């Protein structure tokens, strides 16, 4: 019953096999390996983007920070949701990599709305040289609350950004989960909707530690490469990043794993919804859900070894009926037995 | 015949096996995994340093830059050799991570000498607030030219640094090769000699991509952790870093691999030394050598598919007798047949 | 009728005279001038702070950014009002000088309240290494909306900061105006209330371009000096900064000018309050006021050459009765005739 | 007998008068003042550069750092002399403002030579993404050793830079002294020779604290403005910078002051050259000289209150005949009596 995070699950066996297969003799370092050449071709085809520049790094924070640094200037501000990973969970990495750009928080929900984005952009209007300049818009899909933007919603936000000439970054740490949730194609969810740079997540979806950055306009590709090296994110034994990502794409493994994770979450949600007194804080649309039930229920789970984050409230407390909110995340390896057992424990 | 770099060789099978073994179900992320706890204990024992703070990152540049950032202030200068990796091969990563500290180049050889170090430190003396302030001394062992400092030589440099109250960093991307070359113990080569922070390399010596940073004084451990996260170098699936490094240390695999690499280089050097007209630019003391022979010899090697860097000169050129210098690096997997064939091709 | 800003008014004649007097032969550069020695003594006496470290720079943004950089680490966040000058009007200078720290906006008004501050600090609680760490609290007095904190209010905010071990910075670009508005002494408004570093403004109150930074705890004085030099804010002909600030303090000129500015603003407010349909957006407590009246009134003022910022609304528009908000700032040189004429023009 | 630095001398009375004249009522802040408009016209005419972007800051370090930050990227290296002010005397300000660019020291003398510059640029050739990228070439004229580049020499260096597509910065903290020493026009010494950005000094030559930055290609003008504001170098009461610089240019006051300073230095050099045993370390070509004479001579000067820097050696020491080197700088206000008295004291 492990629902703490999709980053604590195992690597898919096919990915492990690909790593072993890649470990054969010598290979050119630093991204000049044959596997990377193959990956570049596949990625471009997958995204219907024959010109796209494609790079691999090992952490999502690196992908986001390097992408934003490449899209922005240090005297600008990045527009994002108040719960964006880049704002809340990266210990100022975006500020570091951009050389001190600011993050402007848009609206008050996990999903940005076009009106709120426009208002935030407009609010940075009138100070000339005194205020920060308008910079990239960064959207997270799947959001940090488990909801999902459709490609059309991404497009509506990007349209606002484009009106002001601002580039658009998509933090797709759970990009696969968003795609299978919406049915959009990779191209529809990105450049066709107006996205300029994508953090294409792998680590939360069955890889060991690889994320791609895709620059749909390759004009700043060389700058990105320099920033990646300067950030110490260029791997010498790069073939082991390439191998993971190639295995990820092969035969649609990435979508298969995302489907499994989303389905596991759906099963969990269905089970919990049938219980009286369980309520959801956000509409669970991918592989993450936030639900509240009584302290007594949480205690039963805790004692049975279930793992998840208590998002609001504490296990300690006198009132067994007080509602505490849990965050649960399913990865590709979640199994039905665990889920059903979890739901049964909540039921009591 | 692959002598381009020890970072282009394969991962040791025992390390691959450890990765597979680590891929079992869920594990706590971000360094809270059980394997990391075990590694911490082993490392502290190995270094006879029960208080040391130990962290893992995936690239040598990350290890160096984060260590230096933790040891320095942005208005300081780092003292290093003019051919130090931190100066020549990290695309300004140390400047980036330190927030704009300077690098002061000491002397004109790959090995710093105590006199030259003292002179460089003294030269930063008299400008008060105007000049950069004196910061850490960074030593590379094995050096970038394949020579090795003894523990006593490290101690002599550190003694100069300590006179001025400066911390000492050791870039040990090839630390294992230096140890087996000198017979020093890990403690003798580091904190007993006055080293405050060590970049403990693994990637060039049979790992997939892991380096440890060891802070012998843990006072700045938390700062290091924050800098690592801010630099986007904290891995969620950290167990796969831990597993590699544990396998590395188990039964002395790390020293065994370094011995193999050094021995392979020694065989190569012996073979080349017997050839008339071959001269060495630096005394090869570990797993790297720089030697010169005729363009004709290089052409034969090139046509036979041998891989190494031409350090001085170009294959193109009219004079077949002109001397061109090669850099050759052996990793743990180098084999005698390749070496002997290489030597035979130089002989012609 | 110049009410655009207190930074567009003239320098007080006594300050000009002091500059001329200082221009006599040679003087030691970089703050080693005799005038600076005298100023240090006077400032320490004025603030009842014999240990305080005192530095001069030429802009308020420099004072704020250098003070915050000295009090913080790059992986921290600074707590401030959403309308703080450091957030809205310094083009990311605090982010630049701190090396990429974040600014966390507290509450939704120009004055921070202890409860909102506590909530903001608590909200940065639980993410360990992932979120930014808690850093300095920065308070602006006079606020950017013309309201004033009493010394007790500063003390209440600082008490919250101290509970969490956080340092406190006071942006006193209009410090003199706040003092004369509240009757507090310099010490009461600062270190006695828990302030660790003060930006002591002069430029908006009759100087040519000088601000002091006062570090009540001198432990980081040398670090501040290095950051000032590195920021290019150390003046070679420093005596001309010292001379201005000395003249400012002499015979209470600084308080006299602040009293004149506050009194001018009070006269303006009194006049406008008597007019039907004029409303104030914030309680004008120092030398700045925000008031709304009809577009027709604004047009009359504009045609008569009055200068001030339209804070909300535009002169263009069809409805002459629509309410538009003006921001008016009085400096020491504002005169009664202009004020009365201004009020008469609003009246129509 | 004040020869410590041209930054410790007085402001020219005409400049003081201009400041007083500028202090009349209200003026638009932040560079929108009428005086700045007039200055822009005059500067463009003076430099025969009708498109040039012209900005004022208050320190030479700010001018240099902002100009270099605008011309470079953080992953580049700036080529300069090993004794350049940007390297030795700015406490890492260029590294700070550029976001961590490196400085590559060219050759071993205070004047860069085209061959040494080419060699240094070539040396950064072959490392691809690993080494720093080639960035701006920064030339100092007058050099930090009192020697002067002719316009042709500047042109020869710039020609090398242009071959590699690198921009050229001229640190002209003593630009006026270089012009009067060589007879070149402002345009000949700058853009006609290939200079892209000029730090046009005023502070060392009779101003209170003003330097201009001239971008001959205005393409990056807006970026410069944002960097200036972000660096906290935009003055609200900007008219007092404008007024100084306007007075500086009026009727050639700036060249008149430089001529006086150079002439004073020449008189000093002539006097010292006639003394037996006095030798010059560099050819004094502007307003600065380095000369050696006996410790006994230095002691006499010291006791008589003469002020200058001992560049090599210490007053303390047993041997009265030991040669110690002095650095002497003359400003516009140096007088013949002091100089002659100084020479007489050296003679003994």
Automatic annotation (TrEMBL), chains A, B, C, D:
Q: Which domain of life is it from?
A: Bacteria
Cofactor(s) named in the record: pyridoxal 5'-phosphate
- Give the matching Gene3D superfamilies: Aspartate Aminotransferase, domain 1 (3.90.1150.10), Type I PLP-dependent aspartate aminotransferase-like (Major domain) (3.40.640.10)
> Is Kinase there in the keyword field?
no
User: Looking at the keywords, is Protease present?
Assistant: no
* Any Pfam family hit: Beta_elim_lyase
- Which PANTHER family does UniProt cross-reference here? L-THREONINE ALDOLASE-RELATED, LOW SPECIFICITY L-THREONINE ALDOLASE
Name of the protein described by the UniProt record: L-threonine aldolase
Q: Which organism is it from?
A: Sinisalibacter aestuarii
């Amino acid at each position: 019953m492990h629902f703490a995070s999709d980053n604590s699950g195992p690597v898919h066996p096919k990915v492990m096999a690909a790593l072993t297969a890649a470990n054969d003799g010598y290979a050119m370092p630093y991204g000049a390996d044959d596997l990377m050449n193959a990956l570049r071709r596949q990625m471009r085809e997958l995204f219907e983007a024959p010109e796209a520049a494609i790079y691999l790094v090992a952490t999502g924070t690196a992908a986001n920070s390097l992408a934003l640094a490449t899209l922005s200037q240090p005297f600008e501000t990045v527009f994002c949701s108040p719960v964006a990973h880049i704002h809340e969970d990266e210990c100022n990495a975006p500020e570091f990599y951009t050389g001190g750009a600011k993050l402007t928080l848009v609206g008050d929900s996990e999903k940005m709305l076009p009106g709120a984005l426009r208002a935030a952009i407009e609010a940075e209007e009138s100070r000339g040289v005194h205020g920060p300049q308008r910079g990239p818009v960064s959207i997270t899909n799947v959001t940090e609350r488990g909801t999902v933007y459709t490609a059309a919603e991404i497009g509506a936000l990007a349209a606002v950004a484009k009106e002001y000439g601002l580039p658009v970054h998509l933090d797709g740490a759970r990009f696969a989960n968003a795609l299978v949730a919406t049915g959009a194609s990779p191209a529809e969810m990105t450049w066709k909707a107006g996205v300029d740079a994508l953090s294409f997540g792998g680590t939360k979806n069955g890889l060991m530690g690889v994320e791609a950055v895709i620059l749909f306009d390759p004009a700043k590709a060389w700058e990105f490469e320099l920033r990646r090296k300067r950030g110490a994110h260029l791997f010498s034994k790069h073939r082991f990043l390439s191998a993971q990502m190639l295995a990820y794409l092969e035969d649609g493994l990435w979508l298969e794993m995302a489907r499994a994770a989303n389905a596991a979450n759906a099963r969990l949600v269905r089970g919990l919804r049938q219980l009286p007194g369980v309520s959801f804080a956000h509409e669970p649309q991918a592989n993450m859900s936030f639900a509240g039930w009584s302290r007594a229920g949480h205690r039963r789970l805790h004692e049975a070894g279930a793992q998840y984050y208590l998002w609001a409230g504490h296990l300690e407390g006198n009132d067994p009926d007080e509602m505490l909110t849990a965050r649960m995340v399913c990865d590709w390896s979640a199994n039905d037995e665990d889920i059903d057992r979890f739901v049964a424990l909540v039921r009591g």
